[in-house]
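Contributing new records

If you add data, match the layout below exactly. Sequence lines come first and carry their own label; structure lines follow with theirs. Keep one chain per record. Anything else will be rejected by the validation script.
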Amino acid sequence: MDEKIVKKLHQRIEERNGQFVQDQRGENKVDSSVEKKLNMHKARGAEIVRSFVVGDVMRTSTFRNQQYIDYRQRSEYLIHLKDQLYIEEEVENRRAIFLKGALVDDMICEPKEIERGATIELSMKDIESNRSIRAYNRREAVRYAERWWDDYNPVYRKFTNNCTNFISQCLHAGGAQMTGHHDRSKGWWFRSNNWSYSWSVANAMRWYLSGAQSGLRGEEMESASDLEPGDVICYDFDGDGTWQHTTIVVAKDANGEPLVNAQTANSRMRYWKYEDSTAYTPNIKYKFFHIVL
């Protein structure tokens, strides 16, 4: 790869990274994705005081005099909120486009955290009963979420849109038992090359959690602040009744609000509202589930 192009890409990454911190921002126009994150944290009384970024080139291609560079960017943000400091991490897949050696575009290339087939709904008769009684180990669920938020456990299948599959793995690590094997429209389960809709599809998990009467189930809470580490938040980005994303609470911030881990756009200790997401719309709706077994 042309060293001049690599240098320009590095400069662009560092320039964007510097925009997150006030004393490095200067007078230049702020990138729109940076502005969304800054505004979200400002509204909750938080500030990014340090930012660190690295990028790895994944592939390059050329078409009609344009050079496309796909790269993976990992960012860490040191966030100050009241008397609390914590680190948020995220990974973005991005594409930079060069024309005759000049950078003409640099964009996020994520599947918008939306899962295909997320229109499945489970009725009450589809819910399998699980009569075994055991406690939900929130510490183990969170420990799993921290271990695998930016990696993929080879025991399970990896999906292109992996958010709900990841949350199911966290819940299972916390002691939730699988039920309803073999019928994909029933229960909550994973077996080698087969799995239930509720295991892997955000919309199906949302309805499963609110419909189950025993075993893995979710008690709907009024607000995000009512949740504890190990609980689950479901997201309907468009507000149209189709639930498209799932996260797990791993901590609470100094305001008592959840910080979450998630995959698809892999994130750690992310503020739960997702107002900085590429999929966010003003019509977004949330469901807050306190997990019980």
